[in-house]
Amino acid sequence: MRYLLPVFALLTLFSMTIPNGSELEMNLKRMPAQVTPEDDQSVVLNGTLTLENQEEVARVLFMLSRNISDEYAIGDGLSMVMYVLRYMAQIGEYEFVQRDMKALISSFENLLGEPFDPEVWSVVDQIRKLQFARHKGQLSVKIFAMNEETGVTVMMNAPGEPGSALKEIEFVRLKHGSRVSFADAESSKDHAQVKELVKDRFKILGFIGLVEDDMNLIHPSLVDAIDLHLRREKDDLIKPLFIDFDDAFVRVHTSTILKTIDFKFKDGVCIPGVKTIEGAAAPSFLLTAKAGLLKLKTTVDQ
Question: Alpha-carbon distance 250 to 191, whole Å?
């Protein structure tokens, strides 16, 4: 079946590139003393690598690829990346180096028959390795940058809304060693938390020239459609994915006395496939961030 192709690519790549057991031991013996595994190759850290529920993983990845909209291609692409990382973390505890990341992306390009945007390769070029493991009981990935000083930077240069004190979102930066953790939204309690993230507004006292609307930038189409979306049949619904960030921030330029503010990412949620009553796409990637007393909640509306 066509939707099994992404998982086939994942499993094929892992079987080819990540040594295990005696193979790993032999490879380490062959390596020069000055070269460490983390510099040269992907390695298993603990146990063996297995991907459970392969058909479900394939179904979700296929549905994600079908739900990348023209209106919100960047946000939908980020959501898909989060799900791919979540499933890669499910496979086991291992380190995945840049060389193998590029091979994986190239395999997806071949399957899709078209190249990814140059921005994807720009981000991968900044990553030395990904370390997958469980952190505080959750699936997670730790990101190690090629440049430990600058980390991994995703340029946004996204203008703010007309009349807003937020003039531009310049870039998102993951610090060297930053971590992203994942949790599926499955229960009714989880769905209530998703609705809260979408609908509840952060309060602000209105000092330094910022007002409540500046800090609550959730696209109205997502607010209007979220209740109906979460009532969809299980087979038609991609489980929302909670994401939690450690050591990542977004730089924002404002027209206030503070000029530039670095908001540290806190948590967020991916909600792919949301449609309005009219059938139009809604943004799928929502983040919250904090800078001192200021809290920011936004969807990626690109």
Answer: 27
Asked if residues 124 and 140 have their Cβ atoms less than 8 Å apart, the reply is: no
Handedness of CA 260, 300, 144, 135 (dihedral sign): positive
- Strand blocks (E) in 255-302: 260-270, 285-291, 294-299
What CA–CA distance (Å, rounded) separates 281 from 276?
6
Residue 139 near residue 86, CB atoms below 8 Å:
yes
The rounded distance, in Å, linking the Cα atoms of 112 and 99 is 20
Encode pLDDT of 140-178 as tens digits.
999 999 999 999 988 776 666 565 556 677 888 999 999
Written as one string, the DSSP assignment of 19-72 is --HHHHHHHHHHS-TT--HHHH--EEEES-----SHHHHHHHHHHHHHT--STT
Burial class (CB in 10 A: 0-12, 13-18, 19+), 91: buried
Q: State which residues of the chain have pLDDT below 70.
A: 1-40, 112, 157-167, 205-210, 256-258
Q: Which ranges of 126-170 does DSSP label H, i.e. alpha helix?
A: none
Q: How far apart are CA 216 and CA 141, in angstroms?
A: 28
Cα–Cα distance for residue pair 26/19, rounded to 1 Å:
9
- Report how far residue 299's alpha carbon sits from residue 72's, in angstroms, rounded to the nearest whole number: 10
Q: What's the rounded Cα separation, in Å, for the pair 136 and 140?
A: 9
